Amino acid sequence: MDFTIYTYKKLLNALQNAGYNFQTFAEFIREPKEKSVMLRHDVDKRPRNSEEFAKIQKSLGIKGTYYFRCVPESYDEQIIRNISEMNHEVGYHYEEMDLCHGNLDSALKLFEKNITKLRELCPIESICMHGSPRSKYDNKSLWNSNKYSDYQVVGEPYLDLNFNKIGYLTDTGRTWNGARFSVRDKVDSKLEFNIASTQEFIGALNENRLPNQLMLTFHPQRWTSNKTAWFQELLVQNLKNVVKKILVRRN
Questions:
Q1: Which superfamily does 5-14+22-250 belong to?
Q2: How do residues 200-226 score in pLDDT, each as one tens digit?
């Protein structure tokens, strides 16, 4: 079974055995290492799953970046503090253009409010857009006429990384090659990876077929070893993939 905690641990071990350094996104922006992997986690919902990921990483002596939304299904103050105290990076998973229905002034004010609220809990150095696949608004468009550096933000992965050099893989669609299901969680890149399962991912690492610099995006709510929750997530994600595939074709 893929997308279990056991499989996740095997992937982390394979990354370690392949010689990758684990950097947070903010660390990579400041001083990228030659062979480095950024573990990015979009905490869309079920924050306890992300806390479990953070504990696993800490036990292995590695760290990642966790992007929290400021909505009830993601925002948990104690878990945010706990993950930060484990020496992981916490960032803001912003979605203001969607929440404000494209009103730029309202979106910027809400962004200021939300990032200030998060910074009362822990340091926030980076941001990453939430895809909001059912919305007609692209949250990144908030920065078409504004600068996030004005808010002491060092970077945004979709806007500050060269994905022609840095390999990007995401578990969007509950697969590692789910571009056909992804409305906005995708990048412009000449690098292509034909990897569907985590086992194939591990095989590519063992055979040294991946770039020296990687960003991996996880949605921890998809990963569980509870059989009931695993099958529920499988069913829900398959239904979502049908809808997302239609949205991608329309776009």
A1: Glycoside hydrolase/deacetylase (3.20.20.370)
A2: 999 999 999 999 999 999 999 999 988
